[in-house]
Amino acid sequence: MPWEPGRPGSGPGGPGSPGSPSNPRSPGFPGWPTSPGGPWGPGFPGGPAGHGEHGGGVTRSHGCCGGFPGLPVPPAACLPYQNNTVLYAYSTDIDYDTFHGGANIMVTYANKYTTMANVRFDTKQEEEIEYHSDKKSLENSLNSHVPDPSLGYGNKETGSNLYTVLKKFLNNGEVSLCGAHVFIAVKRYPDESDVLDIITQLRSNHVMVYIGVDSISSGGSNSASLYAVSYQTNGYCLFATGNDLWNAFHSMVETLIFPYQFLAQNFLVSGSGRIEIPTFKTPTPPGHTNYGLVAMTIQNHTLDSSYVSMNYTIESTDGSYVYEFPSDDLLPLFGTAQTDLLKLTGSLLYKWTIDYHYNTDEPQIIECRMYSDDYNDFLPLPPSV
After folding, report:
1. What distances in angstroms separate CA 121 from CA 78, 118, 125, 185, one per listed residue?
2. Is residue 66 included in any domain, yes or no?
3. Looking at the domain assignment, is residue 1 inside a domain?
4. Is residue 315 helix, strand or coil?
């Protein structure tokens, strides 16, 4: 059966990764182409700074949620997709299915990037980042460094060494950092709360960080700083566990197929209300229709009972195209994230309307992202206060 965008289970499975009823999308299709303690959790310096109305009304696109004073604006010399590097980092405690879902996408699309890198962290004997210029080298390294909890710390008290690994990557001196993509699968949470130095370096080089966090931690104490790192770099962070984590992380890594982000908006909300993102165009050339990727997250921590529902519509202003979530033929919410394909036509204008419902007045963050395979400049980074 031919692959169709948004249809669960469509497309053939990749080698060694068959689809299943519990995993509604077959992996490897080559053309598919917490911490509690307040809404931000501990370790997010400054907390949220809203830039728009929220709670029981219409929230318009003003951006939100700074909290890191003096964060840099990247130099103009750094442009998208020039000598890009992609890093895949994963905890040795992470489940194999989640690891393999990300690894399969990395290997399949290695030829789109100049340098691929991988590292297994949270091991008693710290491992080095390995850099590759060809697909086979990457595949061999991933196959010889699969997750193995027996190599880990063996306790719940020790925090993750993820930030040590990120610092090594940022100071590697060997490969280009400009516009790099970083995908991270987390099972053990870090203990650090002050990550300003790392965020500053990431932003200075337009490095975009995507983090899939297992809601059931193997140790450590601070998941809020993970959200901060991804949020402040225009990536996104999701929380899920089990099959939901596999599905959500697999979809997250598929942003490799669509390397150009053309929409990144964040909204601080509470209760019930509506978000209206102003009319926008896509990077798709006029007269062409291509596939793109849409991603949303609905909480900045592990999914909890305060979330009730989220419905949204992306439609062309002429009414010729309507993408309406939820729908039987679209991928559902997995944990705190929903990611899927949609069609983008270059000659059309689009609008995005989101209706949200939480059963408390506690602040929540909604992240909205869209990606294309057609060139687009880097977007402005979230404001700092």
Report:
1. 29, 10, 9, 10
2. no
3. no
4. strand
Identify which of 103, 164, 70, 99 has the alpha carbon closest to the alpha carbon of residue 385: 70
The number of residues making up the chain comes to: 385
DSSP-assigned letter for residue 148: -
In a domain, 267, yes or no: yes
SS3 224: helix
Cα distances (angstroms) measured from residue 138 to each of 145, 151, 166? 11, 21, 19
- Counting as low any pLDDT under 50, the low residues of the chain are 1-67, 385
Instruction: Verify that 104 and 226 share a domain, yes or no.
Output: yes
Specify the residue for token string 């909300």. Answer: 269
Domain check: are 223 and 334 in the same one? no
> Is residue 48 within 8 Å of residue 39, measured between CB atoms?
yes
pLDDT at 383: 84
- Bridging pattern class, strands 260-269 and 307-316: unpaired
List, for residues 260-319, the tens digit of each pLDDT value. Answer: 999 999 999 999 999 999 999 999 999 999 999 999 999 999 999 999 999 999 999 999
Q: Which residue has the tokens 């689809």?
A: 19
* 141 and 115 Cβ atoms separated by less than 8 Å: no
pLDDT value, residue 70 = 55
User: Angle at Cα 257 formed by Cα 382 and Cα 103, nearest 5°?
Assistant: 100
- Which pLDDT does position 15 carry in this prediction? 30
Task: Return phi, psi of residue 124, to 5°.
Answer: -60, -40
* Alpha carbons within 13 A on the beta-carbon side of 210: 25
C-alpha 116/C-alpha 271 separation (Å) is 42
Do 295 and 241 lie in one domain? The reply is no
Domain count, the chain: 2
